[in-house]
Amino acid sequence: MSAADALASLVAAAGDPRSIAAGHRAEGRRVVWTLGADIPRDLIDAFGHRPVRLVPDATTDTAAIDSLIGSANLSVRGRALLAAIATLPADDALLISHADAEQPQIFATLRELARCGALTPPRTAFLDLLTTDGAAVRRYNRIRIDQVAAWLADLGGTADLGNALAAGNRLREALGRALRLREGGLLDGAAAHRIIAASAILAPATAIALLDTLADGNGLTPVSGIPVFLSGSLIEDPATVAAIEANGRLVLGEDHGWGGSRSAPFPPGDLLDVLAASTIGPRSGPFCDVAARAAALARDPIVRRAGRILFFVAPADEAAPWQAAAIEREALAEGLTFDWHDAPAPEPIVPEAPAASRSPRPQQRSRKSLAAVAEFGAYQRDWFAGLRAKVAAGEPFVAVNANAPQETLRALGIPFVVNQWWASIVAAKQQSARYSGLLRANGLPGDVEAYSSQGVAAAFDRDADRAPWGGLPRPDAVGAILSTDATSSLFQAWAAATGARLQRFERSIESRWDIPIDWWDGLAERWDAFIEPERLDLLEAELRTSIAALEAMTGRRFDVAAFERVMDLVNEQEDFYRLTRDLVAQTVPAPIGIVDSMPATMVPQWHRGTEWARDAARAFYEEVAARVATGEAACPGEKLRLMFVGRGVWSDMSFYQRWEESHGAVFVCSMYLSLAADGYIRRHDGGRDPMRALAARFVTMGDELRMPTWAGAWHVKEAQLHQVDGAVALSDADPLVLRALREAGIAVLELGIDNFALDPATDAEIDRRMRAFLEGPVSAAAARRAT
């Protein structure tokens, strides 16, 4: 066989993985489809099974999947993968990894569709390998590797762990020799990517033989073009590389997860320990160290030979845009050229117009009927002014995401702001367009996770007269749980812009296939029996590491007694929210609407763990109870009751009250008060460690709202508890939640809008759709409820 024949065989294998899988089955091997560039094939090979990588196919028909789950929470790629999984043979198996934030959603969606009987996937497991370096993450990864090893053993076959690492390294070394043909101009980038794909599909012995033959290079046709090095998004389809090269470029290398780095041998050692460490400190992808990626790129010999970095952003990739500025700076500093691949023209920076000229509907202030809400607003302003004064006087200051632990900061006495609260202030002050422009002017994306990027934008705000509430102080530390693809890179950009210490907490994934759906019934009290202990171990260890770093940064000492008091105050506060939620839900007409309950819940939530917040929650409850006792109602002529699904429209709270006078329609239920009632309480009685209870609070945060199985049944429970006739959803609503609501007989209107910045141009259309919804299915549901 010639090198050309070997190349043809490898390319053919890459293009037809299902035929290769059929050959493995014919040899009596179990096929394990792998979804995730970070899944080590050595582990699957060690048990005698055959891994075959699963990648999206642009030609896949997703209509059947779209009819089951919609298209809001999974990208085109995610839905194509689900459609492909639906066609896999029942006797095969599927292993999904945490290579990005979408793949846990795919796993959970499969689990929920299987639970509902809507889909029968092959036997499926999830490999939750995390990336930040540290003893706790390495322990966690080893546990997850052990669990998947047990799953592979249960599939059958005989384990040979001792030889698997050596065999895997022989394959990686053979791949490296073949890829070096690019240096001699005998291989283009598209062919290289197909060779890498083939090495993840073929049996090791077959792949090694073909790669060794190819490496000779005899008879290969030379290739030419303008040399470039690819960076940016992970590229799963070699056709993408072929399209890049079609206009005269020649890809000499790449630094994404399906690139030449797959030819790097693993270090010697115990196979399971080596694989548990294989994802630590990734060179690329959503969880990489951006500065390290940029520095490594600028100094890579192949990059220097190419002289040009071509930055590619795949559709729906929200991490790469946050990494581009750092990579461009390093490239230019080293005399390299940096180009975007087919980058669109930058959007013009247009100052935001006054509200009256932006919208056909005059902006109206929402009517808040509770005295407590007005007091909360005044308190919030005074608190923020006091915080700014403390920071100006030299006190440390921290900014954190809403789903990151804040109680430890409270116990340390460190002033902090929640990032998403700041975003709501930016939106309320009509500064979102200006802040988007500030981000773009500094090389950062202005429209990627806008709700979370306003703190970054504040670092560039030099206009003291326009800065909301005087402006956000420059933080000494920023912290986040890595819950989305953009989070890690976004917070690294924030830290780089401000000099802040970066504190990242891993987002571990519930990896069991069978979980109870009624988690709200007892999670507050029995969290230690419900949540996987390895997840609690990890976050508890990360919390203690974070505390030690904050102590070193500030010179303050963590007071255990103060922390226990903080935890008790939080539980007391949330207990009042639970009482209030139940009152609102059972009272008709509703004593308040969500225009009252959202700020009355969220403002004190930003101050969780203080006596003021506990007392504010109590005052909220007592005022609602008084209204119930006297028969006061948010809308005395209430006819229709509505649930709002998704983040609140903080920039236009009057949206929720537009329909009261015209239709007697009251929004009575939102995630804010409901989640406060069911999602935050974590008892630590009976000698249980309050730090572990705090870990239990945050390790599930987000699951309740958007993770399939967790979220659907809970939203149905809340809808039924509140006696709603219909639900209105934003673009961030989980499609399976909406499906669950519909299956429970609750009418749903999907507005398809973003909470952060409503588009005034669509206001009339939203009005039309809302009226049709209220006058049609919602009115019909209310009539049925009345009878």
Can you walk me through this structure?
There is one protein chain. This protein is of the alpha/beta class and 787 residues long. Helix content is 51%, strand content 10%. The chain contains 34 helices and 16 strands. Strands 2-1-3-4 form a 4-stranded parallel sheet, sandwiched between helices. A 4-stranded parallel sheet has the order 6-5-7-8, sandwiched between helices. Strand 3 (93-97), helix 6 (102-115) and strand 4 (123-127) form a beta-alpha-beta unit. The protein is globular. It starts with a helix and ends with a helix.
Number of helices: 34
Provide the low-confidence segments as ranges: 343-363
**Sheet/helix structural class:** alpha/beta
Rg computed from alpha carbons, rounded to a whole number of angstroms = 27 Å
Helical fraction: 40-55%
| Beta-strand proportion | 5-15%
Q: Got a strand count?
A: 16
Mean pLDDT: 92
Note the gap between the termini.
Answer: 80 Å
- The dominant shape is globular
Strand order of the largest sheet: 2-1-3-4
Major sheet description: 4 strands, parallel
Short description:
It contains 34 helices and 16 strands. By secondary structure, it is an alpha/beta fold.
